[in-house]
Amino acid sequence: MVAGIEHCVYCFDVLVANFEGRDHAQPNFEDDHYPLFVTWNIINHGNTRLRGCIGNFEALPLHSGLKEYAITSAFHDRRFSPITIRELATLQCSVSLLTNFEDATDYLDWELGVHGIWIEFQDENNRRKTATYLPEVAEDQGWTKVEAIDSLLRKSGFTGRITDRVRQRIILTRYQSAKHGITYDEYLKYTVQNGSKATTEKSAKIKDGKKKKKRLSKTEPILGDGFDIDEIY
């Protein structure tokens, strides 16, 4: 299956319904099983900033899995404060459905821009460490394979000196993903064309209210374009 606009619209509606205190729209796609991730970004003045990204490598039913992780990544990513209703108009939602999991022969046995990578290893105290990057992360950051691996080691919580001996201890799983993303404006447009009138009117009011607040607030900070590299996805 290819991730599509309907998956992202569903995640958006789950979030918006949570804010509005209503039931979300029913999904209009098959309830297939996939490992999945839901990513929320803020887009402001052409800059993109990660706002939450959580998923699961277990194959989950898409209806319940996307619903769960739309909320979990929006409100319970420990790296960020919960997303607020004031941020809706600047949100982008991406859904990644993970496929083609393969055991790699070593830590370099994967292709930039094609594979996501999951690493597992034991540190010097025999504690198990794990971390993952989705397929687009290393290429987006302009990393080499080694730079991506070293960043993952830090992301996993490893604080020691990174040497090739440490890298050689890594057990790496590579995978691919089908990804689709939409903005809040695209969600509204889809809802106008296919959704309920009540949902559209409420969501439009949220957007209008956001715009009015922006005109009145001259001191509102502008989001930067910098990522904390160890915490992307």
Quick gist of this model?
With 233 residues, the chain is α+β, with helices and mostly antiparallel strands. Helix content is 36%, strand content 28%. A six-stranded antiparallel β-sheet has the order 2-1-3-6-4-5.
Can you tell me about this structure?
36% of the residues lie in helices and 28% in strands. With 233 residues, it is of the alpha+beta class. It is elongated. Mean pLDDT is 86; it is low at 197-201 and 208-233.
Could you outline the blueprint of secondary structure elements for this entry?
Elements: H1 5-20, E1 33-44, E2 47-61, H2 62-75, E3 91-103, E4 116-122, E5 128-133, H3 135-141, H4 145-155, H5 164-168, E6 171-183, H6 184-194, H7 197-216
Antiparallel strand pairs: 1-2, 1-3, 3-6, 4-5, 4-6
Radius of gyration: 19 Å
Count of alpha/pi helices? 7
Silhouette: elongated
Intertermini distance: 22 Å
Q: What is the string of helix and strand elements? A: HEEHEEEHHHEHH
Strand arrangement, major sheet: 2-1-3-6-4-5
The percentage helix is: 25-40%
**Estimated structural class:** alpha+beta
Report the sheet-strand fraction. 25-35%
Largest sheet: 6 strands, antiparallel
The strand count comes to 6
Q: Which residues form runs of ≥5 with pLDDT under 50?
A: 197-201, 208-233
- Average pLDDT confidence is 86
